[in-house]
Every structure is written in structure tokens, then in C-alpha cells.
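Hi,

I'm pasting everything inline rather than attaching a file, because the server keeps stripping attachments. The sequence lines come first, and each chain or strand is labelled.
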Amino acid sequence: MRTLSRNLGFMLVLLLVAMMLPAGGSQEDTADQGVTITWWALSSGGGDQSRQQLREQVIADYEAEHPDVTIELTMLENEAFKQKVQVAVQGGDPPDIFHSWGGGVMVEYAQAGMLRDITDYVENNLADRIGSGALGVYGYDGHYYGAPYDMGAFGIWYNKAIFEEAGVEVPATWSELLDAVQAIKDAGYIPIALGAGDRWPAHHWWAYLATRIGGEAAFTAAYDGSGSFADEPFVRAGEMMLQLADLDPFQAGYLGATYDDAAAFMGNGQAAMQLMGQWNPAVIAANSTSGNGIGDDLGWFPFPMVSGGAGDPNDVLGGGNGYVIGANAPDEALDFLNFFLQAKYNEELVDVEGIIPVVDGAQEALANNPYSQRIAEAVAQADYFQLYYDQYLPPAVGEAVKDAVVALLAGNLTPAECAQMVDEAWRNN
Amino acid sequence: MIGHQRKKLQTMGSGPVALLLIAPAFVLFTLFVVIPVIQAGYYSVFHWNGMGPASDFRGLGNFRQMTQHPVFATALQNNLVLIVVSLVVQLPLAFLLAMLVGRRSFPGVMIFRSIFFFPYVLAEIVTGIIWKFIYHPQVGVPTMLARLFGADGAQIGLLGEPNAAFSAILVVVVWKYLGFHMILYIAGLQGVSKDLEDAAVVDGASKLQVVRHVIIPSIRNTIVISVFLSVIGSLNIFDVVWALGQGGPVHSTETLVTYLYNFGFRRFAFGYGSAVAVVIFLLSFAFNFLYQRFIVREQTNG
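And the predicted assembly:
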């Protein structure tokens, strides 16, 4: 009797454990009926459904042509996506198609064997309608793992009305920018809105300066080990950034401010400039009190050149959005990505997501959008396209750059120490 | 009667029935506590980016790196400051409030209790958002106060000042959890014998003496629990701190758990992150053990 009930208890434990194990094998049952593709895309957050609606439309169009394929779309907000995809990849089960900014994180996934090498497919099917600069962001060491649908540039967004009131012209050089900052300050406005609490908005200032000062050569040397991130151009970038910071150009408490906080200063007409990517107008509008931003007063100009710098003034620091293919994805996933990357949908994304289109033929959608057009031109004209440091470099190094630049602004590090901190993270990686 | 009950309990407390009853808890505890702790311990000696098997053995290298990292020292220090503030400011304040609104009935007493308890009901992230407004450099309370006292055009962004940000967060934490401890003390105060208090008063004890020698000893159990929850909560705090600045500016508001997130998760350094988790676990465990051993034990004996 006693043993019987003990066994009973033991079996109950086993049963409980069994119930908790994931049910394997059930997927194979449906295999005969067709292919299921999982697709993880980014939502805008804030309850806007338009991104999802567009993608659902693409899916419906595709499924109508391919009745044997089912595509399961999951829309995730930025931070939630990063975590969820990290867990999925670490669990060895990445989605078939998922969002990626390319660069270091993508390379890390690829090296772990979690992405499918689609080099041949990209070269045969996509390379004829997507430029090599934009495609290159999704490649590493001669292999492609995905493709972009958006590729833009960081640049300075500015308030034309404030510029006029302060009597300043669009600055073409760094010293003109410093003069403009002083004039705008004297006119009673915040010269530059910066969300340094999020860290990434701050590190772009340093990275762009380094790109202007050292050009492609300095970064390539640091990256391939023939030079280092502690080299003179990177130290000089810190020094010039402090030149700017010494003018006290940012809003009060900027070290604790988020990107959204900073965008609000732009949207409410209190700040004159903000260094940011192509998506900025929508964010400025969303964070403004009126909900509409500053309308036609918003302008865009490229990051100023640095006199004597090795970088070409046309060089661009930027990045975009795209999709990579999970290691276990079926061939249909490639076909669907190809389908998604047609001019028609790329054009629609301009309005829905504020992208700078990369697919040939979609650029016409920018006709009535002057600043997007300028960004598109900047990307097209750039001989050297530098992907954002925090995306291009491996995660540990990207984090170190962001930390170092904020510490530089806070006065905790000297320009040389800032560069050394980046170099150290790079060498330890 | 009592003897009979105990006997019955004893029969229930052994054998297959007991096994059946503890099985669900045992399985859950093993799956979600024991196994992860063992895993964290295992990964803590590797350099590992979280993908594929961990193979780059580092021994105690991760722990050595931690001891040499100034940000880890900041995080640890912030946790200690938080514990001290909780014990020295928050709990006495909660006790005081409980004495004010928990012992007698006056018109609106429930409203006061609800007001003080309200912050505890709020989600941590909501708390963070509310306080970001309160501390807003342009329209926040510190800025308005400064302007009220004549500093025209002043802008005070406490959360952006590396020297002030953690103090600003301490205020939020005290505000948020004050009500919880107040409710604990109110519950404890219900059990204080009125006769004992009256007797003390008759014997000529002052109000302060009644509190010191009658009330506090009577609610010792409650205080023991309240201190315990406060310390463990302070060691593991994350959400509120994260919502108010992600450990920044320049890591000045980092706590052990935000440190784990920033230097483990965000950098794909899961071996290192595991090592930090092990340290947090050991600290909590050590406190738990010593507290049970010396404080709770003493209490049951006494």
C-alpha cells in the first residue's frame, strides 16, 4: 500500500515534468500541408498600427500567389524585439525572417551559425535593384545574410525660424557650427537638443567627428588592427566635442534626457538643432505638444566638415533597417523577402515608416518630401558609408563607445581616456 | 485536542501524501530556481556570448574583473546606501505614519491610509514615468520651487546630474515603498495590548516611553519582517531605477541588477553577467542566512 502510493506520487511528479516540456514533433505533422514562415518585424510603439497593416497586406498578396505558404507575422516594439530575438537565437531557434540593423550584432549571430548564408540568392536576385552600399550593411566577409529596405544618413535637423531669428546660416564647417551655437544661445534658444540619457544619440556626435577627422582610413585601420581607436583622430574627435560642450549648447539636464525628451524640445520650437537619423521628423511631431512638430520650419543639413580632416565632406554616417534570414529558414523565406523588397512596397514604406527607400524605382516616392530627398542624395553620393558605430561594432564595443562619450561629456574622462576606453573594449572583445 | 491534532498532522506530514502535496512546488522550485542558479554558477566561470556552448573557461576571471571595475563598486555602494536609507529613513517614517493613521479612528483616516498606500499599488514603470515628470528640468517641481524663490529661468534636471541623480532616485524609492511598510506596521499595531499600554500609563510612563517599552517590543515580529523585506528588496531593486535613467547618467545610479543588465545582457557578456548574478545571489543568501540565524531564531526563542 505504502509503496503503491509512493509510486503514485513519483508518477505524478513525472507527469508534471512531462507537462512542462515543450511538445516536440507537432510541427512535423503540418509539414505536408505547406510551409510556415515566421516573420518578426518592428512596430513603432505608441499604438500606431500602420506598419502592421502594410505588412499584413504584403502577406495577403504573397499568400494569394502561394497558397501553400503561411506567414506568421509578429510585431514587436524596439526593446522588446531586441530581447526576444536574443533569447530565440540563444535558444538555437531564430525566426525565419527577422529585423536587423546589420553590423556587429548580425555578425555575432552569423558567427554562431544562427543566420542563413544567402549570398548567392542576394547576388542573383537583389543586387540588380539595391545599391551595393546599402546591401553591404547586411554582408560580412563576402557573405550576405539579409537585405535592407531602408538606408539613411545621420545629419543635423534644424529649426529654420530660429536660425533666421538668430541670424545664422546653415553651417558648413565645424567652426561655423560653433559660431552658430553661440548666436542661437544669445538669441535665447537651446542650440542643440540631446538625449544623452539614452547614450546613443550622444555617441553619434563623436563618431561623426571621428569620421570627418580620420575618414575611412582611420576607422579601417582601427578595425583591422593596423591602427587603433586610441589613435589621434579619435582623440581629436573627443577634443572637438568638448569644444562644443564648453559652449553649454545642450538643454538643462541633458545627461538624464531621453531621445524623446530631446525631440520634444525640437517639436515645441525651443531647440534649434538635433543630430539624428532619417526617422526624426515623425518622432519630433509625436513628442511635440501640438502633435504636429514645427512643420515646414524643419530643415536638414549634412554634418559639417572639419577643416584639415581626412574625411570627405560627402562621407556619411548612417544606417537603416532590413531583414536577415534565420539559419533554419526554408527557401520560401528568401522568395518572400524578395517579394517584400519590390519597389511598390518600398514606396509605401516611405509614408508608413519614414524610410529612405533602397529599391530602384521607389525613390520617386520622395518627390514631395524635400529633406528625405536630401538624405537619399547624401546616401547615394557618399563614397564612404559608415554604419553607426553602435551597430557596426560588436555589442560590447558599441556599449563602450556610448559609455565613453557620455563620460566625456560629463567631464569624467579626457578625450584621450575616452578613446582609450573604446580601444580597450575593442581589444578585449 | 491539541495533542490529537498534532498527531494527525504528523501522519500527514510523512509518506506519500506529503510527497504528492509538495510535488508541484518542488517541480516549480527546481525548474525556476534551483536549475537557473546552478546554471548561472556554471556560466559564471566562462567568457561566453550566450550563443552555442560555453567553452572559453576563465576560472575566477569574471569575479576578478568585477572587483576591479569602478562601476561595480558604484553599484554595490548604491545598494548599500539604499539599504541604509531604507532602514534609517523609510522604516521609521512608515512607523510614524502607522502610529498617526493606524491606531485611532478620525474622520478621513481611511483616505490618509489610502493616500500613503497608493504609491505601492502603482507599477514600477508607471512610478518612473510619473517621477520623470516631477523631476522634469523645465516643468518639474524642483525647477518650479527654484523659480518661486526668485531664481528666474532656473532649470534643475536632477536626473541628469551624476552627483544628484541617485539621491533623487532614493526619494522615489522611499516614497514608493513607504506605504507598504506602513500597512505592515498598522497590522502589527492592531495586536498591541491596550491593557499593557494603559498599565504603563498608570505606572507613569511618558508617551515616548510607552512607544519605546510597550509598543515597539509588541510589534517586534512585524519589524523583523519589515526589515527583512526592505533589505532584500533594496538588494534586488531594478525597475524603478531603470525607468528613471537606466543606471545613468554615467553609471551614477547603477545598482547591482542594473549593472548586471548593462554589462551582461547589453554587451552579450553572459558569462560575466552570470558571475554578477552569482554575487547578487550570494549576498542575498548570506543576508537571509545570517538574519534567520541570529534575528529570527532569537525571536522564536525569546
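Chain A has a mean pLDDT of 89.

If the labels don't parse on your end, tell me and I'll reformat.
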